[in-house]
# Entry
Amino acid sequence: TSADGWLMRLDDSGNAAWKKYFGGASYDILRTVRKHPAGVVVGGYSYVAGSGYQGWAMLISADGKQSWSQLQGGPSTDRFEDMVVLADGSVVAVGQTYVAGKSNEGWFVHLSAAGKINQNNAVGESRSDGFYAAAATSDGHVIAAGYSQPLAGPMRGWMVKADAQLSTNCK
# Structure
């Protein structure tokens, strides 16, 4: 059994200009779509045999062609939940990644406009952390929002600001 990600582009009248499936031999889940100067960037996660789920990002042109596709992650469950397109066409994906010996952590991944991974930063100090949404700020940074589950106590909301190099020490 498998499932592919599905995209559809609508024309100005609301009719389907194209419909396409993207993915491989297993489960491929799309979670976010953002406008990009070269089309749209799409993010989610894809199951890779022997590695588990990997964060998945791709750029799709206006005519529905895949310009690039990138998988990122380790030997467990890693997901992209949202993306931000920066002024230079690069993309910051956010979500969660499993860090060995720790658990899930919030995850920032910076991809160039050509889809190459520039930076990768896992952040968190709790039993489980992750991001579900992101936005660009007027000063060129990215704010990610999600959850943090401490070792003791209830889950709580969590926001982290990162600069273009994904340092979370920015002001």
